[in-house]
Amino acid sequence: MALIVHKYGGTSMGSTERIRNVAKRVAKWARAGHQMVVVPSAMSGETNRLLGLAKELSPASPTTAVDRELDMIASTGEQVSVGLLSIALQAEGMQAVSYAGWQVPVQTDSSFTKARIQSIDDARVRADLAQGKVVVITGFQGIDADGHITTLGRGGSDTSAVAVAAAMKADECLIYTDVDGVYTTDPRIVPDARRLHTISFEEMLEMASLGSKVLQIRSVEFAGKYRVPLRVLSSFTPWDIDITEESRSGTLITFEEDEKMEQAVVSGIAFNRDEAKITVMGVPDKPGIAYQILGPVADANIDVDVIIQNISHEGKTDFSFTVHRNDYTRTMELLKNTVLPQTGAAQVMGDTKICKVSIVGIGMRSHVGVASKMFRCLSEEGINIQMITTSEIKTSVVIDEKYMELAVRSLHKAFDLEQPAA
Ligand code: ADP
Ligand code: ASP
Ligand code: MG
Predict the structure, then answer these.
(1) Closest CA to 3 of 226, 167, 138
(2) Which of 75, 87, 150, 343 could bridge 115 with an S-S bond, Cβ 3.0-4.6 Å?
(3) Where in the sequence is the domain holding 11, given as residue range(s)?
(4) Tell me, what's the pLDDT at 195?
(5) Are 254 and 366 in the same domain?
(6) Residue 236 has what pLDDT?
(7) Ligand nearest to the CA of residue 233, numbered in listed order
(8) Which residues of the chain, if any, have pLDDT below 70?
């Protein structure tokens, strides 16, 4: 008997019919003798719908007070899902009980809309499992020290599931979604992307952090920290598929070092359309300027990603960086109102129509010329690179958003990532 955590995403929970299928699949696992904890997302489209309602009423620049209410609203999507799934499980003849985050409790910090899980008390869940119940816990939400409901950022149910698996020392955490694993890139953009049977933890971490939404980055971080056996697989296989076959399907995240020694140099391509570029122009080129610009941005709890500073002309330079598009307006206001007057910079310019495209692979550590191959491929397509950033196992470029699909497809081909011909 093993303790297994299943996570079902929005599409997998998208209708009562699909919820019934999820219940049948979970019941199959429970009947096979496993203790089951299930973490579902809100039904597809529901979180967007809820946040859309709030947006109709909310001012352009959300405040912490608004963010608190957004979490109050958005968290209800998952609350509906756990109730429905428990009822469906009971209809399958299972004993099942649903919990919201606060009932477990899933304790988080107070960063509304992007809270981090701090601890999970497993006592209540264990007691239910011991009584033979299937326990259904909301994804995406938790509670802070003052009793406020929080949410974990978009896609956060992955993190809830992996955190629950880590807290319970589960034997495995299975992330059921609408694709049958992790692909070399998003199969919606490149139809002949190839499914990876395994992906190293480090590569998965990069892919997620660079925009592959198949797993939320914090879920991968949790899996790494607590060594949670993690697999991404399809919820659209027939629910009564043989369990052994099901357990081997999808993509396994592996933790072995040098797992990919003999495999491709580049394992995958990620892209991110959620960022915006900001350039502060005519900044006096003197010590402390990066801090003067980015210090207030960090103090406002805004994450900065790619940063470049150009060479100076006559003592002045340009300084560019990217932020999440949700933080764009706030950052521009901050720069205009605070940073420009303090630094004596000439002006601030913004561009929200950019995207970041990245190649990822642990093989890049031991191979030279990978980045230049990427640049050559983009130049052959006539795509201008606005910013570049690299690490040991990835190279990212910021380009005009309108070239995103072309860039991803060309790079996918250039690095031989397509399906082998049948
Ligand atoms: P869920 O609702 O199940 O959490 P998501 O939409 O969050 O599902 O994540 C699954 C989606 O991630 C897929 O439908 C796919 O379009 C997208 N995706 C992006 N990059 C990848 C990738 N490298 N491999 C597989 N899917 C990817
Ligand atoms: N329902 C949340 C979202 O849409 C969390 C999730 O699906 O993982 O972002
Ligand atoms: Mg998701």
Answers:
(1) 167
(2) 150
(3) 3-261
(4) 96
(5) no
(6) 97
(7) 1
(8) 59-62, 257-263, 421-422
Query: How much is the pLDDT for 60?
Result: 66
Choosing from 47, 75, 76, 220 the residue with most ligand 2 atoms within 8 A of its CB, the one to mutate for a pocket test is 47
Rounded CA-CA distance 152/140 in Å is: 5
Instruction: Say what the pLDDT of residue 313 is.
Output: 84
Q: What is the CATH number of the domain that holds 115?
A: 3.40.1160.10
In terms of DSSP H, where are the helices of 340-398? 340-343, 370-380
Instruction: Give just the sign of the alpha carbon dihedral 98, 113, 44, 187.
Output: negative
pLDDT given at position 248: 96
Pick the last residue of a domain from 261, 283, 317: 261
pLDDT at residue 261 in the model? 45
- Give residue 282's pLDDT: 92
CA distance 401 to 357: 10
Residue 243 and residue 329 in one domain: no
* Alpha carbon distances (Å) from 357 to 187, 201, 266, 388: 15, 20, 13, 10
What phi and psi, each to the nearest 5 degrees, are found at residue 235? -95, 0
Residues 251 and 275 in one domain: no
Alpha carbon of 10 to ligand 1 centroid (Å): 11
Rg (CA), the chain: 23
H or E element in which residue 334 lies: helix 328-334
Residues 88 and 167 placed together within one structural domain of the fold: yes
pTM for this one?
0.93
Tell me: do 383 and 309 sit in the same domain.
yes
Q: Which atom of ligand 2 is nearest to the CA of 156?
A: 8
Q: Judge if 150 and 95 occupy the same domain.
A: yes
User: Ligand 2: distance of its center to the CA of 162 in Å?
Assistant: 14
